């Protein structure tokens, strides 16, 4: 079952987006209790501690190759680990979880743009149509089924932080094809360690400015969740999904985050599930299916022993 899961791109991507949706809801809940840079730092430091024991045999074997590509490793660690997550948590201190979940739906389009700029990958008409259909689904949820309500959706400074973070993360996901040809777990652990080191000076600066973790045990349990599920597992799963079907098709799965976020809001925030949720979810699913049909037909199992 584990092997089958590891070779099923969409099973991996669904799990990754579920964990990321939980991270956004939780990150908003921790705003005011855990400083944003500290949350990002301890998230990735904790993930590194959890993962390094599992990865050590492969990491030791793959380290020489990653060191030969140290510039590439630094760029990927800075964009995918350090900048994106820190900026997202800063944004969550000034906006709502719903806004952030909705903004995440721009991620597939941003990844497609980066893939074109970096590699001249031209999206197919089917992929672009799928993105547009999914965006209509997101807009349906955002506007509660009313275009008048959607017209009152406004961006604030927190939203702008999140949008900037999405642009940076889009570069990371589109650039994953350039990562050293090592095992995904080796790459992820090395990137987490480097990203954590990059954030350390900013976390210390935040601490000297008087920011402290408050809220007791629930805050620390929240940090523990971010270290394991949306960090170690979600990034491992998403990176593997990109490896199997490419950045453009994998990026389309990010439309699942608003869907999962709405469901989590119903479960944990006791919000009522409305008919517009059903319509939005149906459109998101249709867009993902439409955009991924070509990728599913052309899917090839990667047989490289370094990535199995």
Structure description:
78% of the residues lie in helices and 0% in strands. The chain has 308 residues and is an all-alpha fold. It has one domain. The longest helix has 33 residues. The radius of gyration is 19 Å and the shape is globular.
Roughly what fraction of the amino acids lie in strands? under 5%
Mean pLDDT: 84
Give the radius of gyration. 19 Å
How many beta-strand segments?
0
What is the helix/strand order? HHHHHHHHHHHHHH
Tell me the distance between the termini: 15 Å
**Count of spatially separate domains:** 1
SSE-based structural type: mainly alpha
Strand count, sense and closure of the main sheet? none
Shape, per Cα inertia axes: globular
Features:
0% strand; 14 helices; mainly alpha; disordered C terminus; single chain; 308 residues; 78% helix
SSE topology:
Elements: H1 2-6, H2 9-30, H3 36-68, H4 70-92, H5 97-103, H6 107-119, H7 125-142, H8 147-151, H9 157-175, H10 184-208, H11 217-245, H12 247-252, H13 256-268, H14 275-297
Can I get a quick summary?
This protein is mainly alpha-helical and 308 residues long. The chain has one domain (2-307).
